[in-house]
Structure formats: C-alpha cells, structure tokens
Design a protein that fits this description.
The protein is about 30% helix and about 20% strand. A six-stranded parallel β-sheet has the order 3-2-1-4-5-8, with helices on both faces.
C-alpha cells in the first residue's frame, strides 16, 4: 500500500475516532499472544495505515492497559508497550479497568456525537465494556470483524472445557450487534475513513 501518511493535523473532536484498545506487545506476542495474533495484528495495522493516510484522518487514540505487578501488561515491562507507536498528535490513554472511559479522560477526547471505530483486545472484556460505554454516551460505534481478539477460555465451572477464542469473539459480536454496534468486515475498511 503506497499512501502518504499525514504527520500533523488538528484533532477531530466531533467527527470520527479510531480507538485502538490494548494493542500491546503481550497481547500479540508470537508465543503467548491471542490465537489469531498474526491476522489481527495485520488487520489492525492495515486499519491504522488507512486512517493515517486519509486527507482528513480521524482522531486516533491508543488505549493501553496497565496491569498489576507480574501481569503480562505490568507498566514498563515488554508486554505493556504499544505494538504500533503513536504519532506525536495521537493521544495515549492508560487505563486500569475494562471500560476505557472509566477512570480516564477518554470521555473528554471523544465528543458524544462522534463515530467511534473500535479495534483491539480482549473481545469479551475491554472491547465489550468500552463499546457498551460509548453506546451509552450516545456515540455511533463500529467494531471491525477480524480486528479484535481474545484468548481461549477454560471453563472451570464446566469441567475444564475450553471455549475457543473465535467462539467468544463471535459471541461478543452478536451481543454488541444486538445492543446497537455496527459490525463491518475488513473489505469495508478502505471506505471507512473517507469523507461521507
């Protein structure tokens, strides 16, 4: 893809926001990251590139989870760092809860009427909680299939059965779709950030 990336632009507070949630090294680690780490990383990179390449790019916000001591995303450890370095005008929000609006200034950066495009991890935690909070604020919310992910889940209460990550991701998509989130496929990304 040979697009010119705009390095500096005024923030867009009222139109469109690309929200990258927990796109951190620990989540996309080659051995211990989410099962779909290669495709999700590639898809998020493509979305970010498309957004940055637009004549009128969206406000791009990077949300970084700050875990507890010995967590894979403990602050200032290798797993905590963002995979895609923010440009100087792209805010970074550090959070400690699933809902990225809770306890942060994210709500001050995103206007209540802005369209919020969400990518990142983990589907059934921070993606679901943040999408739900954005909907409650009145935002139009778009989630990109193939650009959010989670881990397989061991169901201790169900004899140790494992629910595969892709099943959890589809469950969250269905739940958010019912709540009012718009779901888009990767094929729709090139038009997503165009002036409409």
């Amino acid at each position: 893809m040979s697009c010119h990336i705009v390095q500096h632009h005024p923030p867009c507070f009222t139109c469109r926001v690309l929200l990258l949630i927990d796109v951190q090294a620990g989540m996309l680690h080659e051995r211990s990251g989410v099962p779909s780490r290669q495709s999700v990383r590639s898809n998020i990179e493509r979305i970010l590139h498309c957004a940055r390449s637009e004549k009128h790019p969206p406000l791009i916000i990077h949300v970084r989870n700050s875990g507890e001591v010995s967590d894979p995303d403990e602050p200032n450890t290798p797993g905590w760092h963002l995979v895609f370095p923010p440009l100087p005008h792209e805010p970074v929000i550090d959070k400690r809860k699933n809902n990225a609006f809770d306890g942060t200034n994210l709500g001050e950066l995103i206007h209540p009427t802005a369209e919020v495009i969400v990518v990142g991890m983990q589907s059934e935690y921070c993606i679901r909680a943040t999408c739900s909070a954005a909907l409650a604020r009145g935002n139009e919310v778009i989630l990109i299939r193939g650009a959010h992910a989670t881990f397989d889940r061991v169901e201790i209460w169900n004899g140790g059965a494992v629910t595969k990550a892709h099943v959890l991701e589809r469950q969250v998509e269905a739940e958010l779709d019912d709540a009012g989130v718009s779901l888009l496929d990767m094929e729709e990304v090139p038009q997503l950030f165009k002036d409409r």
